[in-house]
Amino acid sequence: MSRSSLSVALLSGALALCGACATRPPVNHRALTGQPWRVLVDKVLMKDNKWVMTEDHVREIRAAGFNVVSPRLGGEDMARVRRVATLAGKHDMYYVAWMRGSLGTKTGLKYVYPDGHDCDIYSPNADELWDRMTETILAQAKVSLEVPAMVGAFLDFENYGRGKAGNCYGLSYDREIIRQFALHINVAIPDLPAAERHGWLEKRGLLKSFEKFQVRSWRARARKLRQQLDEINPEFLLVIYPAPGTLLMTEALFPEWATERAPLVLADATTYGRPAEFMAQGESLLVNRQRLLKGLHYTRKRGIPHVYLGGIDPVCAGADPEFCGKNAAMIGAVSDGYWIFYEGPEYRKDHPAYFQWFQKANEQIADGLVTLHNEPRTEPENLGRTRLDRKTDKLQVAVYNNRKLLGNDIEGTGLYEVHKIEGMSVGYLQQLDAVLLQNYNVELPADHVISRNLRTYVESGGGLLLGHDTAWFMESVFPEIAQRGFPKHKVEAERHVVDRKLAVCAEHPALAGLAKGTEFQTEFGDHMIFEPGPKGTVVVRNRFGDPVYVIGTVGKGRVVYSGCYYGYRHALAGAEKELLLNLLRWLASPPAKGH
User: Are residues 113 and 209 part of one domain?
Assistant: First the structure.
């Protein structure tokens, strides 16, 4: 079968039981049995009407072939939930209520990371978080008894809080969970500052037991919520994003929220748009397919009843209407359906073009004969500019994912004209003195055309900084300088070191006098590490001795592997700012002066 036979079979079996429920309408998600899900999480239509979804909106969404609607706002207001769910049922659709899986706080029990910094959201160990989640979901389930089209809750576990480092949730080192753990193991743990708690546990070999204890407490909370939910409506579905998920999601919600009568619905975000701006449609769809299959494989191995949906977000660079429609078709051919976080298009401008392509995909997905993604491109693709729009005689610098604060820091020197990078051809790159790729998170092989172009650019005299996730996802273009490293301390998501303390560890002309031994705190909450190659020089390490900055020369040019992310929420300051600007000056200097 082209779709997941396991999930559909589980869902079919679960829904067959629904007719035995004499105390409530026996419909709910039965009509989705065996059907691919086609979910629209809307921020476009309702925005055009002061964030209120109308019956005309629902009618339009249904006409485009979607079978589930979820307004981005209003999911925690039961009057709005009831109204839109009723409209969805009237037009032969289903409704899921969007809500966040986190809860903001500035004074409560906060989520604390291994390095001791906190985030302005409640800890996963806070009663306030679980009480609010339980209260909201149970209220939504009660609506489902009145309105059969109301089939579930869509929980967003993306982290939006100040100080975030990753999605919700990993382990928290808050005072309360430390207190509970001490009682559990009958060991006196001192009331330590947040920054010392992880280290104290690690030195005593207690980290693994601490993780098991915390996960077990999450599972108990999640189990209680599901049990309360089953007393109201055992077929009420829970959708979680981003899948496969965080530690909380995979180790607590997977086993406790997935049931035979209500399979866990997993919303993947790895297929949102093109894997890389300037990557052609055909290759982008192949890479997205590989990403989707990876998530599916992991989830299948877990053996839980589930429905797996690939995601689309038109706001992503390169996600034009035709690409989005064909991406939807590809996802529908591989998984149990797809969902759209519908943002970016404007209702009275380009929205109709997006819906035309989604309708083409939806028709094929519903029929089970999906070929749209294999059809040739009908509109020209914008794969990048070839000419730089230069306005000054200053050194020319291009940044991928140019956050305003980072651009301000660079321009503030008065030395550079800063551009958003708009191409990856050799001709375009060679018009630049330096290129900074930050958060260019693409799993490109070293022989990919973009990788080859970057190497040619550097060899001919260009300067390139590969920052944070960029140099980890991308197979090393310059293995003689550095390759991705796998940290062993304070690790999150396999590659992130959740710690902010770094130190200069070498003297080098690129540092322009920044002394060896200089310590500094990073602006961002985590960093990456690298393994230096035979021609790479490590100039900055973390407190565990891992290389974080590795630099070197390749041909006539220069390369910096940086494990840091710049200007995420605050302007750079102190030694971190001085370090970056010194390295940029070294990268952008003429080759004769750069060595």
Answer: yes
